Amino acid sequence: MTSTSNSLEHRFKNQRDAFWGGVREGAAAPATVLFAGMVGFGAMGKTNGLDIWFTTFTSFFMFALPGQVVLLEMVITGSAAIAIALAVTLTATRFITMTVTLFPQLHSKHRNRSLYTSVHLLAMTAWAISMREFPRIESEHRKSYFIGLGLLCWMISIPGTILGYYLAGMVPTPVTLGLIFINPLFFLLTFTEVKPWINRIGICLGCIFGPFFYLLNKDSSLLVTGLVAGTIAYYVDRKILRKRPGLIG
């Protein structure tokens, strides 16, 4: 047995150890970054006249900062309920690919109905870190690791939102908006460490095409950028990288 397989086999002693391993991972930079983003969101809710219950409940029940920002903006502008529901649903379509790429990596005994209670913990940060760490974690301990990581991130979002709500007005608006974008930036930086090159290619193409499509139509720019950049990255991966040994990883 190689040294790599030995380290993989003994990284965690049991499920409890894996759970606390996820908590420790989340307690470092991920929780701090997510907390800062939720502080910015809470302040955004207060400055736009929404009450603390509505603002905080979005963090508790949605736990998806991009969708929460879209919800907030459309409520503020008085959009119809059906339009709000469709827009928020559209922002959540990213969870489809996140789910089908992450959960199949769990041990077969954990791929059951209990995942329905775990999927709420799936967010950009927890997904990116899990995708990075799962190859180094034995499969039977991956679910416990993910729950520890995701649970901490979810729990930290509530006090972050409340704190931001009460700090509103004490922090300049540019700083508030900057706090919201810390989380997506951290996600991108974490995702660049995920092994397959297709991820890095997709991110780079998104940075290139994003400003261009925004100038064409800002309302559809995010969706079109993801579609175009992701399609090109997929094509490059299938037609070029996978035919050249050593370039996939």
UniProtKB/TrEMBL annotation:
Coiled coil: none annotated. InterPro entries: Brnchd-chn_aa_trnsp_permease. It comes from the Bacteria. It is found in: Cell membrane. It is a multi-pass membrane protein. Keywords: Cell membrane, Membrane, Transmembrane, Transmembrane helix, Transport. One of its GO terms (cellular component) is plasma membrane. Its main location: membrane. The chain crosses the membrane at residues 52-72, 79-103, 115-134, 146-167, 173-190, 197-214, 220-236. GO terms for biological process: L-valine transmembrane transport. It holds the Pfam family AzlC. Belongs to the AzlC family. This is Branched-subunit amino acid permease. The lineage of its organism: Bacteria, Pseudomonadati, Pseudomonadota, Betaproteobacteria, Burkholderiales.
